[in-house]
């Protein structure tokens, strides 16, 4: 998401680069990564953006310096609050997908067994469900008492303070550094969008965000920009045909291999049982071995 | 001396530790010099302070505690020089483990990467300073104090095997010299 913000800075992005932002869940729980054509990986939003920034300008610009400073502030003040929210969302998601029997039977177990593959899927889902059940019951037992109220208030207070700082920095401007979106806009939007879309829990932080008009307007502006620049997958005829075959006959290669193995083994059994192929065991060798053993025993 | 770490300030019976708390206290007492500055400038100062307090401090902790050469030759002696015989050998290792835990993923980086991160962060501040007298505006702010504190320590501490001075931009060194002349009248030449 943050990279899309950079698109407006007229950087030519190699379309062959692979991004990890394939599913929203992956983006929510892990750090994004970027795979370069030479096979090396860059992990973390800031490192990816610095990679593109270096392509554009060889030296560090003052905008980038400010961006680094605000990112550090964001990590210090907003991220702890977001981590708390992610934990709650994760808890709710686990409860919904693994413990609700209807959801588990109809969607979760099917999806997971398809992803894991044939022999492992017989045991994997059950084991994972047991593990999650155990961890969730442990957390439920621990209760809310463990979470210190003072910590909660402190983290929330700091996050709110950070939102106020952003509001003051934006100060009726369209973007943080003038008329064009920059890396800082992308970073801020990337984090605030998550906060806006976390509808599973009632969050006081979200209410505070709603009371910051400039930030909300900025988020909407960025959203339209991101939607306009969305990467579209190149849908060639070949890939379409492949997808159609995959949909019609799932696990095609596995089935072919299994059929081949089954066919060969039945043929072999048939030929051996009817005597077309005969296995001769050399009796002399066996008798030689037996005499040697007897001699040794003597 | 202070249970919550350095820096700390003692005025009469009032005792304040940590940099942000001291700045907050001075703001309440209206001792901050840049009161007339715009909101945006104040936000920038807070962000830059955060960069120094979080990122640069992490690098410094790594260099002083997790690089073996520096730890054995400098840090251990300075940290536990005043302790008794047995404690002298126990306490530094305990603190080292504690810092490794605090740094988390950062502790697993190699020295080259940490030095590049330190250089990048210092270059960011140098880019904002450029050739001005102070980092932001015409008056010294808390960010100048913080830059002076960190850069002065980096310049004057001799770390065996690591030449940190080459990673510090020239204009930051000049700022350090200026601040030293202004506040300490050149008592401790850089």
Kindly estimate the percentage of residues of chain A that lie in beta strands according to DSSP.
Answer: under 5%
Termini separation of chain A comes to 83 Å
**From the 3D coordinates, which CATH architecture of the largest domain in chain B would you assign?**
Up-down Bundle
- Main sheet of chain A? 3 strands, antiparallel
- Number of separate structural domains of chain B: 2
Tell me the Rg of chain A in angstroms: 30 Å
- In the predicted model, the low-confidence regions of chain A spanning at least 5 consecutive residues are 1-29
Overall structural class of chain B, as computed from helix and strand content, comes to mainly alpha
User: What overall form of chain B do the CA principal axes indicate?
Assistant: globular
What is the strand tally of chain A?
3
**Backbone shape of chain A:** elongated
* Secondary structure: helix percent of chain B: 55-70%
Question: In terms of structural class, how would the helical and strand content of chain A be classed?
Answer: mainly alpha
Weakly predicted, low-confidence segments of chain B = none
**Number of continuous helical runs of chain A:** 14
Q: Which features would summarize this protein structure in a list?
A:
heterodimer, A: mainly alpha, 2 domains, elongated, disordered N terminus, B: 190 residues, two-stranded antiparallel ribbon, 2 strands, membrane (chain A)
